[in-house]
Amino acid sequence: MFKKTKKKLRIGVIYYALVRRNKKDGIGNKAIIPKQTFSLEILKMPDYLPRPDSVFDLWVADFIEYSTKHRNELGLTDNEAAELQKARNAWSHAFARHQSAQEAARLATEDKEQKRGAVEQAIRKYVRVIQARPATTNQQRRGLGITPKPDEPEGEKKVHPAAFPGGELNIIGY
Question: Do residues 23 and 31 touch, judged by C-beta distance below 8 A?
Answer without folding.
Answer: yes
